[in-house]
Each structure stands twice: as C-alpha cells, then as structure tokens.
Write a structure and sequence with these properties.
The structure holds two protein chains of two kinds.
Chain A (H helix, E strand, L loop, with lengths): L2 H28 L7 H19 L2 H25 L4 H19 L13 E3 L9 H5 L1 E3 H19 L1 H11 L1 H6 L4 H27 L11 H11 L7 H20 L6 H21 L7 H7 L4
Antiparallel strand pairs in A: 1-2
Helix pairs in contact in A: 1-6, 1-7, 1-9, 1-10, 1-11, 2-3, 2-4, 2-9, 2-10, 3-4, 3-9, 6-7, 7-9, 10-12, 11-12
Chain B lengths: L2 E12 L2 E7 L2 E3 L3 E5 L6 H8 L7 E6 L2 E2 L5 H6 L2 E4 L11 H8 L9 H14 L15 H13 L6 E4 L8 H16 L3 E6 L2 H7 L2 E6 L2 E7 L6 H9 L2 H5 L16 E9 L5 E10 L4 E5 L6 H9 L6 E6 L2 E2 L5 H6 L2 E4 L3 H4 L7 H7 L6 E2 L2 E2 L1 H10 L1 H6 L13 H14 L4 E5 L7 H16 L3 E5 L3 H7 L2 E6 L2 E6 L6 H10 L6
Parallel strand pairs in B: 4-9, 4-10, 7-8, 8-9, 14-21, 14-22, 17-20, 20-21
Antiparallel strand pairs in B: 1-2, 1-3, 1-5, 5-6, 10-11, 12-13, 12-15, 15-16, 18-19, 22-23
Classes of the chains: A mainly alpha, B alpha/beta.
Chain lengths: 303, 508
C-alpha cells in the first residue's frame, strides 16, 4: 500500500464511528434536542458490543446489542430532557460520566483481550482499483453502511412524512400537534435513534477499528460528532465532509508517527480536535442558515 | 340549495361558563355565512366545535341530515369540512410544498414533489393565489401565508365547507377586497363558506347570511334577501352596551392658548437597515387636533412614532416644542413635556407581563405616593378606582396579572395609563387593531375627549374609515415621504388610497 492509501484507509476507519454518532445527533437536533449523550451511547455500545462479540463471536448480535444499549442511554436522555425538562447539555454530560463509570466496571475483564476475527469483506473488482480500492472497498459491513447512511438519513428527513414530522417538531411543535401527531413521541423517537446510531458507531470502533476495549476509548468523539452537526448546518449530506475531516486529522496523526516525524505524540493527538475547532470557528462567523428554531432557543437564548 | 351542516341546540360549557348556548344554525352549500360578534362572544368556540376541535356538552351536529356521534376533527375532514386558522399552522423553515405535504393525511409516506407541485400550482392559478410551491414560508408575508392555508384546505379530498377564523385581521386594507372577491369565487363554485369577523362592512359586502352571537347566544340571524341593516347588526353585537356607553364623538374647539404646538422641520429618519425610510418631513402637530397618519404599514409609521417619542434618533432635521428645540432630547425629557405613546404591540412594548394591572399603572400614569418610605398601594388603588378615565375605559380589575389579559384589555389599560396623566401629545399606533367594536368605540371616544381637552393626537392607523372619521388633518406616508395634509371632510377616499399605494409621486 502506498502512503495515500494508508492515509485514506485510516481516514475512513477513524471517520466511521463519528459518522454514525453525527447522523444520530443530527436527527435528534432536527427534532429540537441536542443529544450530548451520544458520547455515553458510543461508550456503552463500544464496551458491551465488544463483550458480546468476544463471548459469542457473533458480530450481528454485537451490533444489535450495541444499538439497543446505545438506545437505552438515548432513552434516559430523552426522559430527562423531554419529560423532566432538564438542561440538555448538563444531562448529556452527566450521562457521559455515568457511562464512563458503567463501562469501566463492566469492561474490567475485557481490557487485556483482543478480538481477532476479521470482518472485512472486500468488494470484487472495486477493491482492486488503484489507490482507493484498498482504502474504500476492502472494509467491513458497518463501514459500507456508513457510506450510504448520509443519503438514507437525507432521504428520510426531507423526502418522507416521518422526516418532515421530525423536523417540524424542532421548528414549531404546536403545528405538529395541530396535525394530530404527538411531538413528545416524535422527540423520544429521534433521541433514542441518536443513541442507537451512536451505539453502533461505538461497536464499530471497538470491534473493527481498534479491535479491543480500553477505558474511556471514545475520548470525546461523541461530543465532536455533536459539534460537527453544526459544521454540517444540519444537512445530512455534509456529514461526509465533516466526519472524514476528523478522520483525516486522525489519519495524519498515525501517518506522522509511522514516518517517525519528530513531533511530540501529545501535540499530534491534539490535531483532530484542533482541526474541528478551526472548522467550527470558520463556520460560526458565516451565517447560520438552517439551525432548527428549538435549538436556537438553547444555544443563543433567543426565542 | 342543500344544507350540509345543521346544529340542534348546540351547547358547550367550560366550567361554569356557557360559551355557546343552544345554537341552531344551518350551513348551506354555495353560500357565504358570516358569524359576527364581539371578542368573547363565542364565535371561535362555535367554529372549533363545528370543525371537531371541541366536543359539544349537549346538542347535536348533523351532517347531510345525519346525527354525528363522537365528532372530531378527523371526522370533520372526512365529511369535507376544512378550517383556515387564525394562527397559521405553518412551519416557517419549510417550503410551501413541504407544509402542504405535512398537512395531508393521505399523501403517502414518500414526498412526491412533482405531483404535489402540480396540484398546488393548479389550485393557485384557479383562484389567483400566486403561491410558489418552492418558496420558504418565512420569506412570505401574512397575506401569502393565508393563501397557503387556503391551498391546504382546498387540497383536502371532497372539501365542501371552508371555515375561516377572522381571515381579514391579518390582511392589509388593499388585500381585504381581493380576499372578499376570492370568497365569492369559492361560493360561486358551490363551496359553503363560514367566516368569522367583527367588521360590519365586510359582512354587508359579501355575506349571504349573517348570524350574530352575543354572550354565546344567537341574537339575530339575517339573510341577504331579508336585507342587512347596519344598525341592527351593531345593536345585536353590542346589546345594551351601546346605550350604556353613550358614545360621544362631539368635536369642540378647545382653548389652546398658551399651549405649545410641535413642529417638525425637514426630519429624516432611518430604519434598522440604515435606509432612509422617511425623508424631509415637515409637519405641524397642533394642540387640540387629531393628525391622522395613513399608509400601508411598513412605510415608516413605527419609525416616525419612535422618533417623536425620542426612542429613535433622526438623521437630520429638527423637532420643535413651542420655541424649544428638542431634537436631541431623550424619552425622559419628552415624557416630562407630556409626550405619551401607545405602541402597536403594547403587550410587548408597554407592559410588564408579570406585574399586576395596578403595578403597571404605577410604573407610568398614576401618581405614586409614598407612606413610611414605601409605595402607598392603598392610595394608588383608591386613585385607580376613582379616576373617571379609568372607569370609563373599563380597565380590568387591579390585581389581575397583566400578561394574562386579552389584547383588548391590555389596550384599555395602556390607554388609560396614557390618558390619566393629561398628555400634551399622544401618539397612538394602530389603537383599534384586533379590538372588538365596543372597545374601539371607547378608544375613539377617549381620543376625541383628549383632543377636546387640548392635547395633540397623532393617530397612526391602517383603517381609512377610522382615520376619516376621527382626524382633523390627514397625512399619508408612502414611498419615503408624507403627502398632505388632506382635509378628511373634503378628501376623496379613493384618492387617498391611490396615494397610499403609489406614494407621493402620483399626487403631483
């Protein structure tokens, strides 16, 4: 593999978990709830998913369980924000710390083990393309799904009744209700969906990307995903750009280390976050066109 | 013509309040049926009951002669009854097309843009609605938003009854005629139209039948063939209040010797976007006169009022109070000179929502006395109860929280507040907008009394008949300048309407 292929492959691998969490939180934010709990969902999905995969050797089961567990964290967030009307930021943070403790406890026996099963299914012909073949088409199923996930989310959000209902709840729930739909149920659904997708992103990370479990391994990726939703201007198709921007920064970090470039590891580890921060800074001075009304209330305090 | 909806002794109670009391009405196809009445007469409640939002406490709703059981909005829609709500049910961030799609029950799961776009355009062309399916709603004005609501109702399968809840209250004067024409075209196509209004002119010009409600009961029901009588309609709407109020609109010549007039000299005002919204305005605002300001809203009326009151700075020109140049002074100085303003949105601009009526009155208006270092609330309450203007305006009870009052009551309160302090200049912005006939009459009477007492009044309004009736002089704001002054006694309404639409250029 040449250098470019290495960077591309790493970019995809690091970007995929972000992609899932990002799209999940985007659905939730479209419904008017910022799910910072996607961080917690990712942790739970990564830990429990890895545990299931390790003990049953069934990846399908691992993904299902990870999705359910991530969704449970989402359910907690939904209950706190929608029914108990707590601050969505604060409850998201608390759920993250809770998930950290919980996974550290349940994952204590998984620390030294690794998952050797290979889950890669190369796509015939496409995987033999020069440069991009090995990077893009020699991947696992969850990664392939993540390639089309933004299109699916885009279609559902803007081209179906369900999606428009979700968006209407984030804009003007009175109207949703006037049409005979329950905004509360729709919000619950959206926040739980965010947790499910983030949980799957988590299991992709532990089982496929790092092939092991480590305490706190999500390391703020859920928060990053939540912030990247703004970078996407709440538009699903822009998640390719946002998720792989983070992925690219991560890939460069690995690449610099492989090449033995003499920079402190701790400096390079800042790189993905620094890049995301810079991107957010740029987007935030430009206008914010499509921010859902109900998110505006939270983030700028204007109604 | 066949009857579509019939009600038999329809009654609804909210707690101890009987909002609708044994109503019997018939809705026929191909007719425009107006429901008139003051605010709180039970008009909206009746509409919502017919549309299935509220369930009657007793009585029956019959559709096509059949008694309906378990009446609800879904049933109403399936029977071909649609409603255009006063508070539009639209999502501003969505396009017209997406909003229409969201409202449709049987449109399937996946949005079929092409089909729906065609359907919207066909309806839009048929009734000259001018709706573009791909416009985002937040960019559209209220008139256009109403058209989207109408399209939504027309898209309901088998629609035959259309209910409009105060449709003209959001429209500018020039849009109202077009709207009424549209109602006629619906009627001519066989739709039954039911619309709520408290504007008598609208009823007289389009309705085939009118039902007047008062305190939840039908006080009269007239058809066009029987002939509409304006006075009779007003009497059935207001009941005995009319005789009790003894509206006096007498115009006297006040003694204004020694009172300062206000002169505006080549005043130029910029709006929020730094555009010159009014340029070189020269006007005399004289004591003991009502100066009417006509114009389509958004032509600088608000900026003009704010500039006079001292909230907004003029870019050039001078404001003189008698001999004194007060151009640079702030609101404090001007309030000291007796300037008062009632803004177009008093609930937001003039009132502290969490305060009681009395506390709001104490903030401005009533003279605050102190007792042992504290506000003497007892004395204030006494002032409040004994002040003739406050009693005349029928200001609500002192201990009610201002934020819970209806629009009409807030208006009564802010008016009373401006009036009790004997202003030298009262700037009244759209004082009758959205108010019922009785409150409007009281407001008009109060303005006239202030004028007769030597105050200068600036009356900003969109309602030409109001302006023609009250003003001593009339100016029109359009295209950045003030035309006039016209004499309402001799001026032609059509001429003024033309100036409103085209600006001063057409006047020369």
């Amino acid at each position: 593999m040449n250098d470019l292929t290495v960077i591309l492959a790493n970019m995809i691998a690091a970007g995929t978990p972000i992609m899932y969490a990002l799209l999940g939180d985007m659905i939730s934010q479209r419904a008017g709830v910022i799910s910072l709990s996607v961080e917690g969902s990712m942790l739970v999905g990564a830990c429990i998913g890895f545990g299931v995969a390790y003990s049953t050797e069934s990846m399908i089961l691992a993904v299902i369980i990870a999705g359910i567990m991530g969704g449970m964290v989402g359910l907690l967030q939904a209950f706190l924000v929608i029914d108990r009307k707590t601050n969505m930021m604060a409850s998201g943070f608390v759920l993250m710390f809770f998930a950290q403790g919980l996974t550290a406890f349940y994952g204590r026996n998984l620390l030294s083990v690794s998952f050797r099963k290979t889950l890669v299914y190369p796509i015939p012909f496409l995987s033999e393309l020069p440069v991009i073949g090995q990077a893009l088409f020699n991947q696992d199923i969850l990664t392939y799904i993540s390639f089309i996930l933004p299109v699916i989310v885009w279609f559902v959000l803007f081209k179906t009744k369900l999606g428009l209902l979700v968006c209407s709840v984030g804009e003007k729930p009175e109207v949703t209700e006037a049409y005979g739909h329950d905004p509360r149920k729709i919000r619950y659904g959206a926040v739980i969906m965010a947790g499910v997708l983030a949980g799957i992103g988590g299991v992709q990370m532990s089982c496929i990307y790092t092939k092991g479990w480590a305490n706190g391994m999500i390391n703020g990726r859920g928060f990053i995903a939540s912030a990247l939703v703004i970078l996407c201007s709440w538009k699903p198709l822009r998640s390719y750009m946002a998720a792989y921007l983070f992925g690219l920064a991560q890939a460069l970090l690995v690449f610099l280390q492989l090449k033995g470039v003499p920079i402190s590891m701790y400096v390079t580890m800042m790189l993905p976050y620094l890049l995301t921060l810079a991107a957010l800074g740029v987007i935030s001075i430009s206008k914010k066109p499509s921010m859902p009304e109900k998110i505006k209330v939270v983030s700028t305090g204007t109604d | 013509m066949s009857t579509i909806i019939q009600t038999k002794d329809l009654t609804i109670r909210f707690g101890s309040l009987v909002a609708n009391d044994r109503l019997n009405i018939e809705i026929e196809e191909g007719t425009i049926h107006a429901i008139a009445g003051e605010n709180g007469a039970g008009k909206s409640t009746l509409m919502k009951m017919l549309y299935g939002v509220y369930q009657p406490t007793s009585g029956d709703i019959l559709v096509d002669g059949e008694v309906m059981h378990g009446w609800n909005a879904a049933m109403a829609r399936s029977k071909g009854i649609g409603m255009v709500f006063q508070d539009f049910r639209l999502i501003p961030a969505f396009t017209v097309l997406e909003n229409v799609f969201l409202s449709m029950r049987d449109a399937g799961f996946v949005l079929k843009k092409k089909e729906l776009r065609k359907q919207i355009l066909t309806l839009s062309e048929e009734y000259h609605l001018g709706v573009n399916p791909d416009d985002e709603v937040w960019k559209l004005d209220l008139g256009q938003r109403q058209h989207i609501e109408i399209i939504k109702v027309l898209s309901t399968p088998n629609i035959r009854v259309m209910i409009f809840d105060e449709p003209t209250s959001v429209l500018a004067p020039h849009e109202i005629n077009r709207f009424l024409e549209m109602l006629k075209s619906f009627r001519d196509r066989g739709y039954a139209i039911l619309f709520i209004t408290h504007k008598i002119d609208e009823i007289v010009s389009v309705a085939d039948r009118i039902t007047v409600l008062r305190h939840g009961k039908i006080t009269s029901s007239l058809s066009r063939e029987e002939g509409f009588n304006r006075d009779q309609i007003i009497r059935s709407m207001l009941g005995d209040d009319v005789s009790r109020m003894q509206i006096s609109m007498e115009r006297t010549v006040p003694d204004i010797s020694g009172m300062e007039n206000i002169e505006l000299d080549r005043l130029t005002i910029r709006d929020e976007h730094n555009r010159e919204i009014l340029k070189d305005i020269t006007l005399s605002i004289r004591r003991g006169k009502i100066l009417g300001v006509a114009g389509i809203s958004g032509n600088g009326q608000r900026e003009f009022a704010e500039c006079l009151f001292g909230v907004r700075k003029s870019t050039s020109g001078r404001i003189l109070f008698g001999e004194e140049d007060i151009t640079g002074s702030g609101t404090g100085k001007r309030i000291g000179l007796g300037f008062r303003m009632v803004t177009e949105d008093p609930i937001h601009d003039n009132v502290v929502g969490n305060f009681t009526v009395l506390e709001n009155m104490a903030l401005a208006g009533l003279e605050v006395t102190t007792k042992r270092g504290d506000v003497d609330w007892k004395d204030l309450e006494e002032q409040f109860r004994s002040h003739p203007e406050i009693t005349d305006l029928n200001v609500p009870e002192v201990h009610r929280i201002a934020g819970t009052l209806s629009g009409g009551n807030v208006q009564r309160m802010t008016f009373a507040r401006a009036v009790v302090s004997n202003p030298s200049l009262l700037i009244a912005c759209y004082p009758s907008r959205g108010l019922d006939v009785a409150t409007v009459a009281v407001v008009h009477q109060t303005l006239m009394r202030l004028r007769n007492g030597g105050a200068a009044i600036i009356l900003i309004s969109e309602d030409l008949s109001e302006l023609m009736e009250l003003s001593d002089e009339l100016v029109v704001f359009a295209a950045g300048s003030a035309s006039g002054p016209f004499d309402p006694g001799t001026a032609d309404v059509n001429e003024i309407g033309r100036v409103m639409l085209r600006g001063a250029g057409s006047n020369e």
